[in-house]
Amino acid sequence: MRISRSRSVLLAGAVAVTLSATALPAAFAAPSSTAVISEVYGGGGNSGATLTRDFIELANSGSAAYDLSGFSVQYLPGAPSAGSLWQVSALTGSVAPGGRYLLAQAAGTGGTVALPAPDATGTVAMSAASGTVALVSGTTPLTCKTAADCAADTRIVDLVGYGSAVVREGSGPATGASATASVARAASLTDTDDNAADLSAAAPTPVNAAGETSGGGTDPGDPGNPTEPGTVRVHDIQGITRVSPLDGKAVTGVPGIVTAVRTTGSKGFWIQDTAPDADPRTGEGVFVYTGSTAPAVAVGDSVLVSGTVDEYYPSATTQSITEITAPRTTVLSSGHALPAPVVLDAAAVPAAYVPSADGGSVDALPLEPSTYALDLYESLEGTRVQIADTRVTGATTAYDEIWVTVEPKQNPTRRGGTLYSSYTDQNTGRIKVMSLDATRPFPVGNVGDVLSGTTTGVIDYASFGGYNLQATELGTLTDRHLQREVTRKQKGGELAVATYNVENLDALDEQTKFDTLAKGVAVNLSSPDIVSLEEIQDDNGAVSDGTVGSEATLKRFTDAIVAAGGPRYAWRYVAPQDGQDGGEPGGNIRNVFLFNPHRVSFVDRAGGDATTAVTAVPTRKGVTLSVSPGRISPANEAWSDSRKPLVGEFRFHGKPVFVIGNHFTSKGGDQPLHGRYQEPSRSSETKRVQQAAEVNTFVKSLLAADKSARVVTLGDLNDFAFSPTMSALTAGKALKPLITTLPANEQYSYVYEGNSQTLDHILTSPGIRRFDYDVVHINAEFADQASDHDPQIVRVKVDGRR
Questions:
Q1: Cβ density class 230-241: b for 16+ within 10 Å, e for less
Q2: What angle do CA 640, 641, 642 make, to 5 degrees?
Q3: What is d(CA 584, CA 542) in angstroms, rounded to the nearest whole number?
């Protein structure tokens, strides 16, 4: 099995090697009169090739057998980089005097002719155009990367560089190798230790130890193109767990009907067996991976597929995709009806999400598709399915993906989404829909719309989102006309405080982004008195040149707010140290306060900078800040490589109000809900809990000096209302989370993988007794969004009571 393999095409080729004692520059050794590398071919299975595999042929011009026990043939790319390694293929047996020895290498997806039965088989995917092959005494990988260094390695018996190979013998490499041509020695097997002179290009002519050519014999490692099914069926490949019992093994003549073809990205096609077994755990569909080569099959073809079974893990924490790789496909006939799709609806999907493995891998657990939703989806991997009239729970993305639910009554939000309300109550009906039809525009939908009619395709798996439906037939989108919300204007005696994550805003962004975000503040939020912003970057964004100021960014933003009909906001922030606050490299992300000076005043107290901690200062009239604006314990390890909270002291109608703007560390690194480890680890949570505790401690210091202090803590906390982060932030009842004051179906501000959830929060201290709180939905539910977060606002009634 492989994890995150490079999705590049296998350059198939064969190398014919004549065993030559030491085919290095003549200054180092005499040419061989016995074993040499006689032929090298790296074009097998490539487009235009006839042979299906790469090969290396060895020959022996001596009078005695040449023993290959403990020897290897090794391959190096033609222009090796620092990270290039010699790839080793072990040999056995011997080369008879005057005989040949054939080493078969990797197969490609092209070609129609099998090699003669090889004397040894490797898995190296050689380049058709350029590379180096060495016959080596031993199986330890070579380390040399230059011709001179390799000449000094006495383990090398013979060496052939072809194309533009850096490592070669003599004046230059052998030339002319291609998808249709090998480089080979003449019949005399002349070896002068000069690859350019000794080998020439011609049509490949592999010969094995039995003297067979590609016109006869059978390669047991290369089943060619059988016309009768083999003994293995798709359900044998899929097995009863998430990992195939045949992982890493070759299969021959697996029958199926082509149900879908993917011609972009990781190319390939799906086949499905029309004679399923009776076990619901064993899937009947499988993906045939052809790499960068477009599949030469069509939907409805009846095929036999030979290749190697592989479990491909998109990442170390995801589940795997069972595939047949390095395939050779025989099309028996065309135009067949496709297997009837499995209907996915509320009746079919179990209520439980996934079995527990106590944090370990679920790979080896027998599937229980009638009990767990993810087990059901896994049992249908590669199988045709159909959904109908599904509610959109995640808007169309820039990658032409849309999330729907097949369980319309499962945790619906007021506006049509699906609410994520606890770690243990997963939404089992969510599934991501993508399209395999590049000729048809993908529907652009918002949360609450309906993908009407039937959508049919095959179940696949990806690192982002997990199980998805690769649609061959898409339903039509029914627009439910979701509207962006506009909150009410604050009254004269209400202080309006908002939080808004503006998603890496910097002065180099397009004006349209500034204008859309500005409209959100001026119109949708009705011009709050204070806006705590997250993700304001320095003035040149990702450019890393020491710039830390955000004046130009904030000038453009506040100008755009005025143009949208809002007030002329002033701003305060503390510039971070260069490169110390995480976020996009070079961006120097920070929290910022905007405020309307006609409605609220900012209390400036000098001394606040990137490294100075703000403290609560008790006075006879209450509590003040040591610096304003300031940062909470910036040197604390909790804030290492993370945004530091910004604290400011404001006055509204002469009354002090303390605002703490936050942007806690992200969830990056957490294991996915749909991953192989269950229950998933939330490793990022540890740091957020530490950060929440620091903010809680600071709030308590304000309340210790004045128990009636009005404190508003808000921002992108990157965690849920039910999380340990929130428990740490509210400990001792220092703060009240306002999201929980809303009806349950309105408690969200962010949509991720079809789940409506809350990462942004506003919390208030006990001194704030009267408030009106609102999440203003303008982004997260829409395909067209200025930010992936919805802003929030609280209107606080500030009177004479302390």
A1: eebbbbbbbbbb
A2: 90
A3: 6
Residue 507 is given by DSSP the state: T
Q: What is the rounded distance in angstroms from the CA atom of residue 57 to the CA atom of residue 45? A: 17
Q: Give me the pLDDT at residue 429, please.
A: 97
Mean per-residue pLDDT of the chain:
91
Q: Strands, E, within 128-227: which ranges? A: 131-137, 156-162, 182-185, 199-202
Q: Residues near 372 by Cβ (< 8 Å), separated by ≥ 6?
A: 350, 352, 353, 354, 355
Give CA–CA dist 1/724, Å, rounded.
36
DSSP state of 155: T
Any idea which residue has 């509207």 for tokens? 483
Cis peptide before 791 (omega within 30 of 0): no
Q: Tell me the pLDDT tens digit for each residue of 519-543.
A: 999 999 999 999 999 999 999 999 9
Q: According to the model, what pLDDT value does residue 225 have?
A: 60
- Using CA of residue 713, residue 717, residue 720, residue 724, what is the dihedral sign? negative
Distance between CA atoms of residues 75 and 195, nearest Å: 16
Tokens at 50, concatenated: 């006839």
Rounded distance between C-alpha atoms, residue 476 and residue 450, angstroms: 8
24 phi/psi in degrees, rounded to 5? -120, 175
| In contact, 604 and 595? CB cutoff 8 Å | no
Alpha-carbon separation of residue 670 from 419, 466, 757 (angstroms): 20, 14, 16
Rounded Cα distance, 508 and 547, in Å: 13
Residue 431 vs residue 221, higher pLDDT: 431
In angstroms, the Cα distances linking 646 to 298, 534, 749 are 59, 10, 22
pLDDT above 90: percentage of residues in the chain: 82
Q: Is the pLDDT of residue 711 over 80?
A: yes
Q: In this predicted model, what pLDDT tens digit does every residue of 231-245 receive, in sequence order? A: 999 999 999 999 999
pTM for the full predicted model? 0.74
- C-alpha 535/C-alpha 715 separation (Å) is 10
In angstroms, rounded to a whole number, what is the distance separating the alpha carbons of residues 524 and 778? 8
Rg (alpha carbons) of the chain, rounded to whole number? 33
Q: What pLDDT does residue 31 have? A: 61
Q: Check if the beta carbon of residue 411 is closer than 8 Å to that of residue 421.
A: yes
Which residue shows structure tokens 């493995």? Answer: 357
Reported as a single tens digit per residue, the pLDDT across 325-368 is: 989 899 999 999 999 999 999 999 999 999 999 999 999 999 99
Q: Which two tokens stand for residue 120?
A: 């040894």
- For residue 227, what pLDDT is reported? 78
Spatial contact of 135 and 105, defined as CB atoms under 8 Å apart: no
Lookup result for tokens 């939905």: 777
Residue with tokens 């030491």: 22
Q: For residue range 579-623, what is the model confidence (pLDDT) as tens digits?
A: 999 999 999 999 999 999 999 999 999 999 999 999 999 999 899
Helices (H), 152-306: 195-198, 234-238
Cα separation of 167 and 153, whole Å?
13
- Tell me the backbone φ, ψ of residue 496, rounded to 5 degrees: -100, 120
Phi-psi region of 134 (alpha: psi -120 to 50; beta: other; left: phi over 0): beta
For residue 142, name the pLDDT band (cuts at 50, 70, 90): very high
Q: Which residues contact 547 (CB under 8 A, 6 or more apart)?
A: 538, 539, 540, 578, 588
- 143 sits in the region (left: phi over 0; alpha: psi -120 to 50; else beta) called alpha
Kindly report the length of the chain. Answer: 802
CA 25 to chain CA centroid, nearest Å:
47
Q: Which is nearest to 182 in space by CA: 12, 8, 9, 22? A: 12
The full DSSP string for 430-466 is: EEEEEES-TTSPPP---TT-EEEEEEEEEEEEETTTE
Residue 564: which pLDDT band, with cuts at 50, 70 and 90? very high
Give residue 737's identity as a one-letter amino acid code: P
